[in-house]
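REQUEST FORM: STRUCTURE PREDICTION
Request ID: SP-0412
Submitted by: Lab K.M.
Chain count: 1
Length (residues): 194
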Amino acid sequence: MYPEFDLSAAAAALADTVAAIGDDQIDSRTPADLPVRAILGHVGGLAEAFRAAATKDAVGNSAAPEFDSGATLAPDWRTRIPAQLKALAEAWQDPEAWEGETEAGGVAMPAVVTARVALDELVIHAWDLARATGRAVEVADSDLEVLLRFLRDTPPEGTPGLFGPVVPVGPGAPPLHRVLGLTGRDPFWIPKAR
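STATUS: Completed
RESULT:
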């Protein structure tokens, strides 16, 4: 039964996006209305948090995530964050990662739900960073199917602390646009001219 899905493609897409960001882009605004540097700092933190959730090291030790708009990035962030993302995906390859309860971001939940949250974080932040830096990101159809099932009951007002209000995109919209809308992202967001 488990693993229910593979996080590798989503983690690799986010890692590739991170590695391609230029120094001149780290203060660019993202669709989350935060600078790229804040999303990068968050991605490094979430990669470790969800890796520790897979191994159950996080149980009783996790804390709610923070976004620091003025975050100072480690000099090796272009290699460190992709390595952390790879470790996250590898940790969820272990069938035991999917069993029982675990914890991430200060929230205890079934491990299988935690994995779905991790997938959502990987896909949405890859899109945030790609959109902010003029790149495209590929998302596997199977990952979008998982996320659409996971997000389908998102209330119109969103989920406080996780997602903003749902952005209506219409039933005929592409799956990625529907996922983005359910997480409070406007699929047609473009960076504002400086």
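NOTES: The longest strand covers residues 101-104.
Reviewed by: T.R.
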